[in-house]
């Protein structure tokens, strides 16, 4: 997980910002974060549920978790387009093997909203929604 710490500067800029990489086992991160993000990675993880539980406990009560995942529809036939085919290929070569190497669920790049929602809700988040999408990504919002 990467965290961004800092204060808002002038003209919408963030000053004094630092990215910090931490493991889901790192207890020093605290539990006072406004925003935690996952960019195109939850489906690759060996323990996506554990990562989401860690994110949930690290957020403030009114915090937000933003999850960006590859564009994936629930039905196979809905993914048989140029983007879906590229994502299935990448998933086969990168995403699934990475998760399997950690004895994970092998969600792959075509995990879809239903599966991501199940993981998010099982981790203790009570609100989950698709905030927006692009032709390449689904952007979700999860709140405690």
Characterize the structure shown:
The protein is an alpha+beta fold. The protein has one domain (2-143): Vaccinia Virus protein VP39 (Rossmann fold, 3-Layer(aba) Sandwich). The protein has 3 helices and 6 strands. It has helices at 48-58, 82-101, 112-122, and strands spanning 2-8, 14-21, 33-39, 59-70, 127-133, 137-143.
Main attributes of the structure:
two-stranded antiparallel sheet; globular; single chain; 144 residues; Rossmann fold; alpha+beta; 33% strand
SSE topology:
Elements: E1 2-8, E2 14-21, E3 33-39, H1 48-58, E4 59-70, H2 82-101, H3 112-122, E5 127-133, E6 137-143
Parallel strand pairs: 3-4
Antiparallel strand pairs: 1-2, 4-6, 5-6
In short:
The protein contains 3 helices and 6 strands; from the N terminus they run βββαβααββ.
Could you tell me the radius of gyration in angstroms?
A: 16 Å
- Strand-residue fraction? 25-35%
Q: Termini distance?
A: 18 Å
Quote the average pLDDT: 87
**Shape from CA axes?**
globular
Number of helices: 3
Number of strands: 6
């Amino acid at each position: 997980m990467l965290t961004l710490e800092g204060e808002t500067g002038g003209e919408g800029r963030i000053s004094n910002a630092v990215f910090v990489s931490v493991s889901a086992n790192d207890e020093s991160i605290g539990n006072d974060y406004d925003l935690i993000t996952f960019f195109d990675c939850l489906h690759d993880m060996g323990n996506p549920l554990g990562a989401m539980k860690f994110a949930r406990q690290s957020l403030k009560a009114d915090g937000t978790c933003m999850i960006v995942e590859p564009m994936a529809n629930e039905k196979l036939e809905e993914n048989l387009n140029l983007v879906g085919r590229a994502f299935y290929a990448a998933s086969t070569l990168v995403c699934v093997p990475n998760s399997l190497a950690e004895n994970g669920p092998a969600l792959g790049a075509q995990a879809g909203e239903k599966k991501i929602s199940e993981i998010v809700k099982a981790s203790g988040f009570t609100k989950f929604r698709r905030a927006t999408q692009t032709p390449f990504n689904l952007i979700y919002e999860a709140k405690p």
